[in-house]
Design brief:
With 366 residues, the protein is of the alpha/beta class. It has two domains: 2-151 and 333-365, Medium-chain alcohol dehydrogenases, catalytic domain (Quinone Oxidoreductase, Chain A, domain 1), CATH 3.90.180.10; 176-309, 3-Layer(aba) Sandwich (Rossmann fold). Helices cover 28% and strands 26% of the residues. The protein has ten helices and 19 strands. The protein has helices at residues 42-48, 96-99, 158-178, 194-206, 218-227, 240-248, 262-271, 294-299, 315-327, 346-355, and strands at 2-9, 17-23, 30-39, 58-59, 63-71, 83-86, 122-124, 127-128, 130-131, 141-145, 149-151, 186-190, 210-214, 231-233, 252-257, 272-280, 304-307, 339-342, 361-365. The strands form three sheets. Strands 3, 5, 6, 10, 11, 18 and 19 form a seven-stranded mixed sheet that branches. Helix 8 links the parallel strand 16 (272-280) and strand 17 (304-307). The protein starts with a strand and ends with a strand.
């Protein structure tokens, strides 16, 4: 489909370089999307800094919203003019996991990308560019498999829509799908970034009685209250574990770790009540090991530890649902957006994200 501007990562230095790249035409089950908004997720920064290995050079960006320009042969779910949201969940819709409603555990995710040896979707001066998570949204257009896209209402604003594909799906889904929080349950969220705030939203939707948020930044704790937190704890001021146990009457039903650190993951297990659960959402560095008191926590404590990937979401169901909840005024997406930026401001915006001073910057100008 010709040349376009994109942010390319050439080395594991955390830097994005704006360059002209070539995008191929749609093939079987592929959809060409004009990108209207793309969120700056921390996961893409992990890749750019080498913490999550991907082949280089690469175009990242997976929190994408836009408008369908063209649908390739065999596409049955989308048409030109549709407003869509992209997701990094790559699903075949045909394996056992997908058929049983666990598409987030798809056994054939590579079915959504072109095979090795095929003409690449993305290239630069004849050299193949990797397409981050099958999307590559830090660009003017995206060419993706229809299974990675979900249709949303046209009246949904593009910046808010973009966040539905990852941060919202992961956070809200962790509470609703993975943990199945029930009315009256107690919830603790460690980390009040974009995903953590969405866990708060999900717990509130489920009717949790107490939602305790733990974070070192007072600004984020204040923001958590706007999303539905009932209590906030700053570990720089008090002993976080003792404060959580006091606020929850001995431990929470559900504790969500949304930072990705060994220390806070171990804390999450200790903060759960007997029979409660700790959910690890934050991306840990490869090889990270956590230590657990097997007798005290697992056997006598009867606690569960659950890893969470993309909020156990089914994008064809959950993204439209979350869009409707936002349009009904029941899901807070507006306060997730720290600001709208241009594509060429991506490095400055990621610097701010590293400092923890923003929730989500969204690129809306390319």
């Amino acid at each position: 489909m010709g040349t376009m501007r994109a942010a390319v990562v050439d080395a594991y230095d955390g830097k994005f370089r704006i360059q002209n790249v070539h995008l191929d035409a749609p093939r079987d089950h592929e959809v060409l999307v004009e990108v209207r908004a793309v969120g700056l997720c921390h996961s893409d920064l992990h890749v750019a800094e080498g913490n999550i290995p991907f082949p280089l050079p690469i175009v990242l960006g997976h929190e994408v919203s836009g408008v369908v320009i063209e649908a390739g042969p065999g596409v049955s779910t989308l048409s030109p003019g549709d407003h869509v949201v992209g997701s990094l969940l790559q699903t075949c819709r045909a394996c056992r996991a997908c058929k049983e409603g666990r598409s987030y555990q798809c056994e054939n995710p590579d079915s959504t990308v072109r095979a090795a040896g095929d003409r690449p979707r993305l290239s630069r001066d004849g050299v193949i560019l990797s397409q981050g998570y099958g999307l590559g949204g830090f660009a003017e257009r995206v060419l993706a498999h229809e299974n990675q896209l979900a249709k949303v209402p046209d009246r949904l604003p593009f910046p808010q829509a973009a966040l539905l594909g990852c941060g919202v799906a992961t956070g809200v889904g962790a509470a609703v799908n993975t943990a199945a929080v029930r009315p009256g349950d107690t919830v603790v969220v460690i980390g009040a970034g974009g995903v953590g705030l969405n866990v708060v939203s999900g717990a509130r939707l489920c009717g949790a009685a107490r939602i305790v948020v733990v974070d070192l930044q007072q600004r984020k704790l204040e923001l958590a209250l706007a999303f539905g937190a009932t209590d906030t704890i700053n570990p720089s001021e008090v002993d976080a574990e003792a404060a959580v146990l006091k606020a929850t009457g001995g431990g929470a039903d559900h504790v969500f770790e949304v930072i990705g650190l060994k220390s806070t993951s171990e804390q999450a297990v200790r903060m759960a009540r007997r029979g409660g659960a700790a959910y690890l959402i934050g991306l840990h560095k490869p090889g990270t090991k956590i230590e657990i008191d097997a007798l005290g926590d697992l056997i006598r404590g009867q606690k569960r530890i659950q890893g969470v990937y993309m909020g156990s979401s089914r994008i064809e169901r959950d993204i439209p649902l979350h869009a409707d909840l936002y349009l009904q005024g029941r899901l807070n997406l507006d306060n997730l957006i720290s600001g709208e930026i241009r594509l060429d401001q991506i490095n400055d915006a990621y610097d701010e994200l590293r400092k923890g001073s923003v929730t989500r910057s969204v690129i809306t100008s390319f």
